[in-house]
Write a structure and sequence with these properties.
Blueprint: H1 2-26, H2 41-44, H3 51-70, H4 74-95, H5 99-133
Length: 137
Amino acid sequence: MHDDLEKLTKALRFTLGATACAAGADKFFNLLTDWEKYLSPMVAEKLPISPSAFMRIVGVIEMAVGTGILLGYERPAGYICSAWLLGITGNLLTKREHLDVAARDLNMALEAFTMATLAGLKSKAAEQHREEILPAA
């Protein structure tokens, strides 16, 4: 079972981590898209900084979370990624545009939550395995 959990978390770790890093980096270059168009006007008007500066900060956070996931911190970074993606989904729902992207981000939030949960199960399975091999004295 441990090998299956490892395979699943590795697949999720790579796809979620790489996606977060790529999207975060692109917040500086806008090669994939103009990221500001996804920012809800309701959110944009309350920002103390420009939407462009805000999106760059978002990019840094996404790259940090993606890097954490890629480095193997699936559980904490996965839960942060899940919450982050839920926030993005909420932003898109208030804009009432890009509902396809909102649906995608909601699914990715569930994937990040699943990865974090699997990492916890993997850790528990490894701990149980250690206890079976080295029983307490």
